Structure to design on (721 residues):
């Protein structure tokens, strides 16, 4: 009954008009720039932010004050300015703190009996602000390093052995394919894909609803319905808007792959072909499902404001999916994780997430895809009926019994 | 063969009866005026003609065949409220709408350009719809309805919002199309246009057909009982019992008499009373007169006060 040529024309118009808009170009460029920039920015800031406080060390002996000064000024995470002060009246130091020339001072008091490591000196730190945890933490860890090194030196352990002892331990995580994986990175990739899908499904689902409202308020569909059927209009719209979404995701993926080829080795972040293929499958399914719901919402409402009130129908399953993330992360193959990732409205996000972090059984993937397809069919059936009647209704918002009656119209 | 034939159409929205027992037929090559007050069911009837809504009972036939969507390509439709994509360029929009009616892109473009020229809006071709004036948008919409050279043109309130110059231009276009053998149906509240241009009319009120037929038929059903009179001096002749209604204006009056014959005696009385008569004309009722009379009758005299004559 539906004419594919009409669907094609509607889809083509939606696609070409949307892809030309500034909003599309800006979001295509800006969203990855902001996301990428944000992630790399945080990483860069985290790695570069060394403590730069200015403190004083009050000590009668040169050791361990000298070593501590060296550690604090040239350590891995610290580049402080440290003054060594002989013990005596601390009033000038308090004065300096009050004048904000000094961030704090550390008083080292040797205990009377010095019998090695079991008897440490007293360390009293007086910071300008007691909330300055970073500085006191740095001092604490620097002290630990210095005292350990001193103790090892005192027991005649060679310097290189001492260094090896104090190096942090690394645990190699072996992936299912036998290669080294980095669980942080695979988690990062899964997380990014999750939010990408979340964002794009919501964004383009809402675009379908908005596009319907636009045609409704501008009464364009009255002209369209004089030549084509509502079902063709609905199908063309969903396909057209969805293709825009796929184009956008495609551009992002291509850019990410290009970036990965250039800098992937350095960052160690890899996206496998499996991840990309499943992402696209689940994106297409998720989008079709959510946009069908959005189409019904758009047909029921008369303005964007009214649409906002009904948004929760789209948002709730997405929020539920997000709430389920901790469960999936800690135990991706638990019963709860298996069940929630079969719920059709959550499956596109959650099953895809599980695929990224721990490949589920093939039947689970097949079942989830089947369930989504059945749901899409059911939702489209309802939506197209609501759409057919709803787009010709203006003015008052329909109540539930009215919507139920719409479903009976053929 | 009637181009459009509605048989006993009924449409109910929830509890409101929009159209009730409407029977109507439009002959080929006619200019058909659909008249009725606000909310009388004109738009509902038109929507059923083009299958946008389906009647609860009754049948719709187009071009002598029962309604089917495949016949829609032979119809050009201009909706009551203009509908165009605001952000789309005029030419793209016209091509798109033409393609939906089965034209190829080339043909659609060619016809769109020649129509724009004919309606004097060539400067709008490359603009977005939202940049255009309301009148221009209307012309675009008008063109969109005609691109596929339909045999039947259905226009819901085509003249609303147009200035007299553009209104006349569109009317001329419709007259040309009729001359070329197309059937044109339009709803309007401009009675003077109906009077001058329509071959046939239908008047509906509260979802029911009050009268329909060719212009001559309709008018011949009403007596020539209207008098336009211009006079100076004594107006006591207006109290003659034959005068049913008198609308007074500066230097004259429009009268409705009980019957045609009363005109002569009224004139005689006026002259006898010494009134200076400068003009005395017996006329048939205008469509507007018929319209008001019929609508008032359908609503009942008590409710008639609230009836406005605006289509």
């Amino acid at each position: 009954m539906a004419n594919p040529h009409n669907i094609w024309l509607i889809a083509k118009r939606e696609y070409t008009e949307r892809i030309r808009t500034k909003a599309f170009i800006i979001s295509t460029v800006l969203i990855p720039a902001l996301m990428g920039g944000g992630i790399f920015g945080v990483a860069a800031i985290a790695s570069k932010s060394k403590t730069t406080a200015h403190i004083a060390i009050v000590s009668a002996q040169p050791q361990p004050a000298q070593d501590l000064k060296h550690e604090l000024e040239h350590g891995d995470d610290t580049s402080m300015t440290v003054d060594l002060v002989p013990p005596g009246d601390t009033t000038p130091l308090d004065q300096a703190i009050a004048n904000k020339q000094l961030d704090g001072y550390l008083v080292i008091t040797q205990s009377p009996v010095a019998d090695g490591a079991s008897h440490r000196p007293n360390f009293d730190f007086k910071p300008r602000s007691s909330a300055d945890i970073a500085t006191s933490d740095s001092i604490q860890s620097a002290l630990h390093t210095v005292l350990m090194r001193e103790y090892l030196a005192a027991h005649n352990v060679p310097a290189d052995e001492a260094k090896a002892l104090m190096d942090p331990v690394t645990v190699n995580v072996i992936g299912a394919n036998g290669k080294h994986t980095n669980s942080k990175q695979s988690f990062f990739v899964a997380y990014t894909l999750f939010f990408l899908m979340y964002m794009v499904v919501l964004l383009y689902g809402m675009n379908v609803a908005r596009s319907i409202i636009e045609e409704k308020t501008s009464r364009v569909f009255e002209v369209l319905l004089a030549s084509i059927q509502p079902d063709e209009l609905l199908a063309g719209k969903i396909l057209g808007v969805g293709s825009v979404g796929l184009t956008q995701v495609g551009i992002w993926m291509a850019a990410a792959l290009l970036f990965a080829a250039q800098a992937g080795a350095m960052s160690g972040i890899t996206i496998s072909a499996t991840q990309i293929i499943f992402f696209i499958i689940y994106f297409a399914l998720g989008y079709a499902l959510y946009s069908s719901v959005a189409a019904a919402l758009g047909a029921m409402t008369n303005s964007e404001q009214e649409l906002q009130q009904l948004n929760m129908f789209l948002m709730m399953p997405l929020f539920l999916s997000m709430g389920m993330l901790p469960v999936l992360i800690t135990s991706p193959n638990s019963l709860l994780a298996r069940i929630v990732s079969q719920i059709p409205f959550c499956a596109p996000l959650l099953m895809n997430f599980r695929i990224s972090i721990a490949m589920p059984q093939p039947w689970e993937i097949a079942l989830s895809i089947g369930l989504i397809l059945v749901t899409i069919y059911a939702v489209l059936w309802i939506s197209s009926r609501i759409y057919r009647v709803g787009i010709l209704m203006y003015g008052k918002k329909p109540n539930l019994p009215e919507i139920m009656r719409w479903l009976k119209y053929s | 063969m009637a181009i459009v034939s509605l048989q006993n159409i009924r449409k109910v929205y929830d509890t409101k009866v929009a159209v009730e027992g409407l029977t109507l037929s439009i002959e080929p090559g006619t200019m058909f005026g659909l008249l009725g007050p606000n909310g009388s069911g004109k738009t509902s009837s038109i929507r059923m003609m083009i299958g946008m809504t389906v009647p609860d009972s009754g049948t719709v036939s187009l071009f002598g065949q029962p309604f089917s969507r495949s016949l829609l390509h032979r119809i050009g439709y201009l909706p009551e409220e203009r509908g165009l994509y605001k952000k789309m360029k005029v030419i793209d929009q016209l091509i798109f709408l033409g393609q939906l009616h089965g034209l190829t892109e080339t043909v659609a473009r060619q016809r769109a350009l020649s129509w724009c020229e004919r309606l004097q809006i060539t400067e709008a071709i490359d603009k977005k719809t939202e940049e255009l004036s309301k009148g221009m948008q209307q012309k675009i919409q008008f063109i969109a309805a005609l691109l596929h050279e339909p045999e039947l043109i259905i226009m819901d309130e085509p003249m609303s919002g147009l200035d007299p110059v553009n209104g006349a231009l569109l009317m001329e276009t419709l007259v040309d199309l009729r001359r070329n053998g197309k059937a044109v149906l339009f709803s309007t509240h401009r009675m003077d246009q109906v009077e001058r241009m329509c071959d046939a009319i239908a008047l509906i009120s509260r979802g029911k057909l009050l009268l329909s037929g060719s212009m001559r038929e309709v008018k011949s059903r009403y007596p020539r009982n209207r008098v336009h009179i211009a006079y100076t001096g004594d107006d006591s002749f207006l109290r003659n019992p034959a005068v049913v209604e008198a609308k007074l204006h500066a230097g004259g009056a429009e009268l409705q008499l009980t019957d045609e014959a009363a005109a002569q005696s009224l004139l005689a009385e006026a002259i006898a009373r010494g009134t200076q008569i400068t003009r005395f004309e017996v006329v048939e009722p205008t469509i507007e007169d018929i319209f008001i009379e019929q609508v008032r009758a359908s609503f009942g005299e008590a409710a008639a006060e609230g009836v406005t004559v605006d289509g």
